[in-house]
């Protein structure tokens, strides 16, 4: 009688499973869209029909001072967002347009900081609008930022002055 072999237990072969990180997974290549003006998700932009390198630089400079611009517009009288945007457009000869999201985000930040307060206007002139009013703290902040801007402008003027 042949001798029975004892069953040999084979060790299971462990396959190494490599999972790719989702960010490293092969993704379709997106071709860049050629536009005259880069689309900025950040804030305001120069009108897209007037591509101008100087205008882009100016827009970047303005972008950092949206809240100060709003405070300046509220110094004279209470007003609403669309009216401030119209003033900005008029003062820049249509070269700078505050995006609605940018404007109202800035209003929320200013209100949270106690620099402006808001109230609902009457419906005498059409639709009901939220008006904004600068507070005493907002006035102090405006004047402080204005002084800072004047100092920075003076320094920049010296740095870029032709020799």
What is the average of the pLDDT values? 77
Strand line-up of the largest beta sheet: 1-2
In the predicted model, the low-confidence regions spanning at least 5 consecutive residues are: 34-50
Question: At the third CATH level, what is the topology name of one domain?
Answer: Arc Repressor Mutant, subunit A
How many DSSP-defined strands? 2
Shape call = elongated
What is the terminal-to-terminal distance? 110 Å
Class of one domain, according to the CATH hierarchy? Mainly Alpha
Which structural class is indicated by helix and strand composition? mainly alpha
Helix content: 40-55%
Distinct helical segment count: 5
Overall description:
This protein is 42% helix and 6% strand. The protein has 163 residues and is mainly α. It has a domain at 53-160: Orthogonal Bundle (Arc Repressor Mutant, subunit A), CATH 1.10.10. The protein has a two-stranded antiparallel ribbon. The protein is elongated. The termini are far apart.
Topology:
Layout: H1 53-63, H2 66-74, H3 81-91, H4 100-112, E1 116-120, E2 130-134, H5 136-160
Antiparallel strand pairs: 1-2
Short summary of the structure?
By secondary structure, this protein is mostly helical. The chain has five helices and two strands.
Name its key features.
single chain; Arc Repressor Mutant, subunit A; 163 residues; mainly alpha; elongated
């Amino acid at each position: 009688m042949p001798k029975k072999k004892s069953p040999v237990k084979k060790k299971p072969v462990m396959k190494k499973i490599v999972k790719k990180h989702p960010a490293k997974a092969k993704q379709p290549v997106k071709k860049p869209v050629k536009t005259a003006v880069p689309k900025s998700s950040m804030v305001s932009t120069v009108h897209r029909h007037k591509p101008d390198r100087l205008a882009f630089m100016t827009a970047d400079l303005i972008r950092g001072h949206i809240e100060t611009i709003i405070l300046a517009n509220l110094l004279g009288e209470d007003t609403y967002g669309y009216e401030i945007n119209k003033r900005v457009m008029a003062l820049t000869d249509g070269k700078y347009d505050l995006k609605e999201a940018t404007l109202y985000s800035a209003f929320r930040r200013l209100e949270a900081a106690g620099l402006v307060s808001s109230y609902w206007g009457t419906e005498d002139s059409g639709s009901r609008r939220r008006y904004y009013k600068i507070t005493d703290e907002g006035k102090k902040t405006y004047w402080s930022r204005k002084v800072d801007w004047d100092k920075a402008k003076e320094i920049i003027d010296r740095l870029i002055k032709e020799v």
